[in-house]
Design a protein that fits this description.
Oligomer: heterotetramer
Cofactor (chains A, D): thiamine diphosphate
Number of helices of chain B: 13
Cofactor (chains B, C): thiamine diphosphate
Number of strands of chain A: 7
Keywords (chains B, C): Oxidoreductase, Thiamine pyrophosphate
Strand content of chain A: 5-15%
Structural class of chain A: alpha/beta
Domain Transketolase-like pyrimidine-binding (chains B, C): 6-181
Strand order of the largest sheet of chain A: 1-2-3-7-6
Radius of gyration of chain A: 21 Å
Protein name (chains B, C): Alpha-ketoacid dehydrogenase subunit beta
Distance between the termini of chain B: 46 Å
Helix content of chain A: 40-55%
Strand order of the largest sheet of chain B: 3-2-4-5-7-6-12
Bound molecules: thiamine diphosphate, magnesium ion
C-alpha cells in the first residue's frame, strides 16, 4: 500500500486525509482498507457509542460520579485500538474509555474508577493499557519511555499515545514529542482535536495552521486526518504504527473531530457553544458515515446489523450489572500499595485506622 | 450594603468583581475562567462584565499561566490567576518556587510581584485523583510566598481583597468543599489583615488549631465535645504564612493542650510546623504533647475511601482524649 | 576488595557502575551525564564503559527526563536519572508528585516504579541562585516517595545500591558540598537497609539529629561541645522517608534534649516533622522543647551571605545552651 | 526596506539569512543597514569581546566565581540590544552579560552577581532588563507577560527574549511561544543556537530541520539567521521588532552561531568537542568579519579603530576597578526583600542573627 501520510516535513496547511466522505462515498485515490476491517470497525463503533450512552445513563442514575463522553469521537476511539498489535501499548486519557474497551479491557473495570472504587480499575500490565491519565499530556512522556525501553530491549512494541487538542499546549506535550523524535522512539502521538478543552475553543489553544503542523518543529511526520472517517483513521494510524515498528520513529497524527456531548455531565456546554455548531457535526457522525458506506456497498446486511446491535446491548447489560453491584473497598487498602512494603509509619497509621474501625463495629 | 447570604464561590466572585472595579490593573485569567466562568463558576460573569482584556482564557498550560502572570505583574498589572485544581498547579511549580517566590528578593525589592494564585484545594467532594490534594505545605515551605486560606465566606471575600491588595505574591487556597455553602457576608466589613488568626470559639480545656476546610470540622468537634462536658477552643489560622504565633500561643498557653487538624498528609506538613512551633513556644505550659490529626501519609484516596482519610470529628475527639487528662486534673478544674 | 579512599562523587560513581554491572536493567540518563560524565563527574566513564544504551544524554527537559524514566520503569527497566541541581528538578515536580509518587498506588501495586532520581542538593559551595536549594521537604511530604540522603561516602555507595534495588521510586539527595571530600569506603560491606538511622556518636547530654550535609556539622559541634564538657550525641537519619523513629527516639529518651539540624528553611520542613514527631513520642522524657537549627525562611542567599544562612557549629551550640540546663541538673548529673 | 524575514509559514529548511559573508563581502539582494549602524555595531562587538575577555581574566584571578562567556556570540549579543528602543524590554540569560551591557547597564553591576554579592546586581525596572535568568526557558514566559501587559495597556513596548538551543527543549519554551502567538504578543524570541547545551550537542536537542522551524507549530514567523553576521542579525531582529511593534505578533529568530569558550570556566570542553571544530568557527568570527567589511569599504579608519579600542580598554579598566573593590553585604539584608514588609517570623530570625553578629563583634 502506498503511503498516504507525509513522511517528511508535513504540509502544514494540507486538508485532512479522508477516504469516505460524509455521504458514505469512497473519495480520493487511496484504496480503502479491507472490507472485513471496516465491518469489524463498524461493530466497534456501535459498541463504543453504546458504551458512551450507557455510561451517561449510569451517571444520571447516580451510579457513576462523572463521565467524560467520547460521543462523536468513536471512530478515533476504535481505530487507535484496532491498529495495535497485542504486544503494543495504549496510553489513554480520561476521555478514552471507549478506546480502552476497544482494546479488550472489560468496561466494568474501566468505569469502576468513576464509581469511586480506586484510581484505576484494570491491570495495565496485563492489557498493555496505561491507567487513564488525568494530568494532561503527562502520560505522553510515559508512552515515550515505554517505547524507548522497548527499543533498547530490541522489542518491536509500538506505543499509541492519546491526548486532546488542549493538551498540546502543555509543556509535557512538547517534551514528549521532542524526546520521541530525538530518540526515534516507536510512538504514535494521536491528538483527538475535538475543538474544545472544556470550554476553551481551539482558536485559544493554537493559531498554527493545524496541530499536526507542530510535527515540523520536532522533525517528525505529521498528518491531519478526518477524525470521523474510520477508514482514513485506520490507514493513517496504521501507517504510523508500521513506520514506528520498522524503526522509522514517531508520528504526530491529528484527528479533526468533535466532542458531541458536554465535557462531562457536570459541564454546561451551552455556555460556550451554539446548538447550531453541534448540529453541523451531526451531519458528520462517524457511525452514520461508515454504516452508509457499508450498507451501500452491500457489506452490511440486516443480519449483521442485528447481530452487532445485540452485541452492543449485551455489553451494555454487562456494564449495568457490573456497575450496579455494590463493591466494597477495604479501608486498609489505603495503605497497601503506597510502597511495595508499607513503611513503619504507614503500618502505624493502618493500625490506628483498624482500631477506629474495630471500635465502630463494636 | 448590608450582609447578604452567599456561597463561598459567590463571595470570591464578589471579591474579584470589587477588586476589578476598584483597580483596573487587576486582571483575571486561567483555564475556563472566561466565558464559562470557571469550572466552579467562581469567575462567573467577569468576562461578560469586564471584557476580554480583564478576564480571559489562556491556552492550557499552568506554567504558562503563572509565568505570564509574573511578566504582567512586572509590567504593572495585578494578575489573579486560577489553577483549575490543586494538582494541576504542579506543572507551575518551577515558576512558583523559582520566580514567583523569589523575584522580589532577587531584585532587592526593585521588582515586586503583586499577584494572586487561586487554587481550589483539599477534598471532601468525591473527586477523582488529582482533584483533591492538600498542597499547602509545598507553598508554605517556600520563602517569599504568602499562603492564605479562608474557612468562612466572609473571610473568603475579605482575605481575597487583602491578597489582591498585597504587594507580595499570595497563594490563595480555596477549600473547594466549602464553595457552595451559604453564609452571611458583609462586604463592607473591614478587610482582615493577612497574618492574623482568629479565635472562632474560645475554650478552656484544649485548643483545636485548624485552617481552611478543617475549621468547620474542628468547630463541629468542639460542639460535640461540649455535649460531653469538655470545653474546646478553635483557632482558625486564616493565614499560614505569615503565621500568627501570638494568637495561637495565647490560646494554647491558656489551655495547656492542643490538637492540630489538617487534611494534608501529616509528614513534613504545615501541621508538623504548627506542632513544632507551638511546642517550642509553649513547652512549659503544655500538659501533653501537641497532637496532630491529619490525612494519612498516602495519596488522596478514591471517593469510596475518602471519609476514612479525612480528619473527622471522631478522630479529633479521640486525639483530645489522649491529651493525658488524668494527670492534670488540677489544670482543668 | 578492601576499603579504599574515595570521594563521595567516586563512591556514587562506583555504586552506579556496580549496579549497572550487576543488573542490565539499570540505565543512567539526564543532562550531561554521558560523554561529559556529569557536571560533578558523578557519571564519569559510564558512557564509555557501558555504551549509549545504558548511559545517555537527553534533551534538556527535566519533566521529560522524569517522565521518560516513569515509562522505562513501567517497561521493566531501572532508570537512575540525574537532575543537574536541586532547583532544576522543579520542572519535573508534576511528574514526581503526580506520577512517580502515585503510580504504584494508582494501579494497586500492579505497576511498580523501581527508579531513582538523583539530586545534588543543599549549599555551601558558593553557587549562584537555584544551585543550592534544600528541597527535601517537597519530596518528603509527598506520600509514595522514598527519600534518602547520605552523609558519608560509604553510605553514598551503600544507600545508592539499596535505592537502585528498591522496588519503589527513591529521591536520592546528594549533599553536593561533600562531593569531593575523601573518606574510606568498603564496597564489600553489607548494603544498609533504607529506613535505618545510625548513631554517629553516642552522647549523654543531648541529641543532635541531622541528615545529609548537616551531619558533619553536627559532629563538629559535638566535638567542640566535648571540649566544653558537654557530651552530645549525633544521629544521622540517612533516610527521611521511611523515618527511623526507634533509633531517634531511643537516643532522645536517654538524653531528654534534642536539637534538629537542617539547611532547608525551617518552616513546614523536615526539621518541623522531626521536632513534632520526637515531641509526640518522647514528651515526658523531654527536659526542654526540641529546638530546630535550620536555614532561615528566606531564599538561599548569594555566596557572600551563605555562611550566615547555613546552620553552623556556633548556632547549634547556642541552641544546645538554651535547652534549660539549669532546671535539670539531676538529669545530666 | 523589503522584508527579509519570512512572515508566513517559515521555510523550515532554508539557509540562514546572511548579508556579509565570511570574507567581509556583501552578499545577496538585501541592502545592508546604514553604515553608521554597522560602525556603532562594530564598536559594540569590540566592547563585548573585551568584556568577555576581562570577565574571564577576573575569574582566573579569583575575583569572580564563574563566568559563562559569549565569545563568538558577540554579534548576537550586540544586535539584540541595538535593535531595541528605550522603552523596550530585554530578557537575558546567564550567558548574555554582554547583551545586558550593550543595553546600557554598567557591567560592574551585572558582574557583581558573579562576585557573589546578590542574585541580580542592577535595577531591572530602570534599565528595562530583566534579571539574568538561570532556570532555562522560564524567563520567556515572563517576557510574554510583560509584552501582553504592554499590549493591554496600549503601550508600544517590544520585548526581546533570549535563550539558547538547549532551552528550546524545555516545556516553558513551548508554552511561551504558544502564548505569545495566541495572544499576538509583541515578543521576539531570539535563540542563540551555539550548538551546545553544556556538553550536549544540538543533535541531541532536536532533529528538526532547524530550531526556527519550530515557529510553524505556533503559527508565527520563524527565521534562521547567520549569528556571526552582525548586519544580517540587525536586519532580521529589526524587522521582527518592527513587526511586533506594529501589532504583527511574535517572531522566532534562530541565530546560527557558536560558543567559542567552554560553557563556563568550570567546564572542560575537551571532553565533548574537538579543537578542529572550534578552529573551524574561528574563520567565522563575527568581529573579524565586520571589521574586514568596514575596513574594505573604507568605513573604518585607523583613528576609529584606535578610539574604539580605547573605549574598550576604558570599560575593561572600569570593570577591573569596580570588581576589585571589596563590597560588603549586610547580613541583615537576607531578610529585607523576601516580602515587602518582613513577616513576624522573619523579623524574629533577623533579630536572632543580629544578636549573633553583635555577640561575635563583642
Ligand atoms: C495539567 C492539567 N491541567 C488542567 C486539567 C483540568 N482539565 C481536565 S480536562 C481539561 C480540558 C482538556 O482538553 P483537551 O486536551 O482538548 O481534551 P478533551 O477533554 O477535549 O478530550 C482540563 C483543563 C488537567 N486535567 N490537567
Ligand atoms: C531548568 C534548568 N535545567 C538545567 C539547568 C542547568 N544548565 C545551565 S546552562 C545549561 C545548558 C544550556 O544550554 P543552552 O540553552 O544551549 O544555552 P547556552 O548555555 O549554550 O547559552 C544547563 C543544562 C538550568 N540552568 N535550568
Ligand atoms: Mg479537546
Ligand atoms: Mg547552547
Amino acid at each position: 500500500m502506498s503511503s498516504i501520510a507525509s513522511t517528511g516535513v508535513p504540509d502544514a496547511a494540507a486538508a485532512p486525509v479522508r477516504l469516505i466522505d460524509e455521504r458514505g462515498a469512497h473519495v480520493g485515490e487511496h484504496p480503502l482498507p479491507p472490507v472485513a476491517e471496516l465491518v469489524a470497525g463498524y461493530r466497534g463503533l456501535l459498541l463504543a457509542r453504546r458504551l458512551n450512552e450507557q455510561a451517561g445513563a449510569l451517571v444520571r442514575q447516580g451510579r457513576l460520579a462523572v463521565y467524560p463522553s467520547s460521543r462523536g469521537q468513536e471512530a478515533c476511539q476504535v481505530a487507535c485500538a484496532q491498529v495495535l498489535a497485542e504486544g503494543d501499548w495504549l496510553f489513554p486519557t480520561y476521555r478514552d474509555t471507549a478506546a480502552v474497551a476497544a482494546r479488550g479491557v472489560d468496561p466494568v473495570e474501566v468505569l469502576s474508577m468513576l464509581r469511586g472504587d480506586w484510581h484505576c480499575g484494570y491491570d495495565p500490565v496485563a492489557h498493555r493499557v496505561a491507567p487513564q491519565a488525568t494530568p494532561l499530556a503527562t502520560q505522553l512522556l510515559h508512552a515515550v519511555g515505554v517505547a524507548h525501553a522497548a527499543r533498547l530491549k530490541g522489542e518491536d512494541t509500538v506505543v499509541m499515545a492519546l491526548c486532546g487538542d488542549g493538551a498540546t499546549s502543555e509543556g509535557d506535550f512538547h517534551e514528549a514529542c521532542n524526546f520521541a523524535a530525538v530518540f526515534r522512539a516507536p510512538v504514535v502521538f494521536f491528538v483527538q482535536n475535538n475543538k474544545y478543552a472544556i470550554s476553551v475553543p481551539l482558536a485559544r489553544q493554537s493559531v498554527a495552521p493545524s496541530l499536526a503542523a507542530k510535527a515540523v518543529g520536532y522533525g517528525m511526520p505529521g498528518v491531519l486526518v478526518d477524525g470521523n472517517d474510520f477508514a482514513a483513521l485506520t490507514v493513517v494510524l496504521g501507517e504510523a504504527v508500521a513506520r514506528a515498528r520498522a524503526g522509522g520513529g514517531p508520528t504526530l497524527v491529528e484527528a479533526d473531530t468533535y466532542r458531541m456531548d458536554a465535557h462531562t455531565n457536570a459541564d454546561d456546554a451551552a455556555r460556550y457553544r451554539t446548538e447550531d455548531e453541534v448540529a453541523g457535526w451531526v451531519q458528520r457522525d462517524p457511525l452514520t458515515r461508515l454504516r452508509t458506506h457499508l450498507a451501500e456497498t452491500g457489506a452490511l446486511g440486516e443480519e449483521r446489523e442485528a447481530e452487532f446491535a445485540a452485541a452492543a446491548e449485551e455489553m451494555a447489560a454487562h456494564v449495568r450489572a457490573g456497575l450496579g453491584a455494590e463493591t466494597p473497598v477495604d479501608p486498609e487498602e489505603l495503605f497497601a500499595h503506597v510502597y511495595a512494603t508499607p513503611t513503619p509509619q504507614l503500618a502505624e497509621q493502618r493500625a490506628a485506622l483498624r482500631a477506629e474501625l474495630e471500635f465502630e463495629e463494636a | 450594603m448590608p450582609a447578604t447570604k452567599m456561597t463561598m464561590a459567590q463571595a470570591i466572585n464578589t471579591a474579584l468583581r470589587d477588586a476589578m472595579t476598584a483597580d483596573d490593573r487587576v486582571v483575571v485569567f486561567g483555564e475556563d475562567v472566561g466565558q464559562l466562568g470557571g469550572v466552579f463558576r467562581v469567575t462567573d460573569g467577569l468576562h461578560r462584565d469586564f471584557g476580554e482584556a480583564r478576564c480571559f482564557d489562556t491556552p492550557l498550560a499552568e506554567s504558562g499561566i503563572v509565568g505570564l502572570a509574573v511578566g504582567m505583574a512586572m509590567n504593572g498589572m495585578r494578575p489573579v490567576v486560577e489553577m483549575q485544581f490543586d494538582a494541576f498547579a504542579y506543572p507551575a511549580f518551577e515558576q512558583i518556587a523559582s520566580h514567583v517566590a523569589k523575584l522580589g528578593n532577587r531584585t532587592r525589592g526593585r521588582v515586586r510581584l503583586p499577584m494572586v494564585i487561586r487554587i481550589p484545594y483539599a477534598g471532601g467532594i468525591g473527586g477523582v485523583e488529582h482533584h483533591c490534594d492538600s498542597s499547602e505545605a509545598y507553598y508554605a515551605h517556600t520563602p517569599g510566598l504568602t499562603v492564605v486560606t479562608p474557612a468562612t465566606n466572609a473571610d473568603a471575600y475579605g482575605l481575597l481583597r487583602a491578597s489582591i491588595d498585597s504587594p507580595d505574591p499570595v497563594v490563595f487556597l480555596e477549600p473547594k468543599k466549602r464553595y457552595f455553602a451559604k453564609e452571611e457576608v458583609d462586604v463592607a466589613e473591614a478587610v482582615p489583615p493577612i497574618g492574623r488568626a482568629v479565635v472562632r470559639k474560645p475554650g478552656r480545656d484544649a485548643t483545636l488549631i485548624a485552617y481552611g476546610p478543617s475549621v468547620p470540622v474542628a468547630l463541629a468537634a468542639a460542639e460535640q465535645a461540649a455535649t460531653e462536658g469538655r470545653d474546646l477552643g478553635v483557632v482558625d489560622l486564616r493565614s499560614i504564612v505569615p503565621f500568627d504565633d501570638d494568637t495561637v500561643c495565647a490560646e494554647v498557653r491558656r489551655t495547656g493542650r492542643a490538637v492540630v487538624i489538617a487534611e494534608a498528609p501529616g509528614f513534613a506538613s504545615v501541621a508538623s510546623e504548627i506542632a513544632a512551633r507551638v511546642t517550642e513556644r509553649c513547652f512549659h505550659h503544655l500538659e501533653a504533647p501537641v497532637r496532630r490529626v491529619t490525612g494519612f501519609d498516602v495519596p488522596y484516596p478514591a471517593p469510596k475511601l475518602e471519609h476514612h482519610f479525612l480528619p473527622g470529628t471522631d478522630r479529633i475527639l479521640d486525639a483530645v482524649d489522649t491529651l493525658q487528662w488524668q494527670d492534670s486534673w488540677e489544670v482543668t478544674a
